[in-house]
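Morning run. Coffee first, then this:
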Amino acid sequence: MWVNGKELNKETDIKVLLKEIKSGRKVSSLVFDIKVKAQKQNDSTSEILIKKDKTLLLEKLNDKANNYQIDLSVFSKLYSVASVIYKTENIESELLGLVELTNKKTKRSPIEFMLHIINEKQKLYNNGENPSVVEVDLNTYSKEIIPDWFKEKQEDNIPETSAELVDETEIMELEELLKKYQQSN
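And here it is:
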């Protein structure tokens, strides 16, 4: 008994194809091609949250971008590479850092620049090097190296009165001069 293939395909998780092999006008054999359909994934709550997080991240990136917008296809490319080379908790900060670096380094073709940088970061990652935009690229442009002696409490070094501006030997010399002056008058 043959059940309609369309009904099987529609109502079950298998796909059935029937091929008739003919010899002249007569059907000499039947070939059934049966495959399991790919499972349709329903959006679970976590998948919906992930999509919402990605949408919020795209909005943040576009808010930070100077005079350009990142469209969904570019964002998808950036995010897919970033998800491979960065830890999940660092993806947002790295992509925001990429936008900041782009704002600092180029006015022409910022989207192409971002794609180029993320591809270069993937090469660094594949070679075992640090691909971080935040740690490597932004720190070299935004932070100065401050010596340890400068980091000490500055409040201790600021004189409160003008007397503290002069050292002990100068004070003694000035007192002697004052005594001499007073004796001469």
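The chain has a mean pLDDT of 80. Good start to the day.
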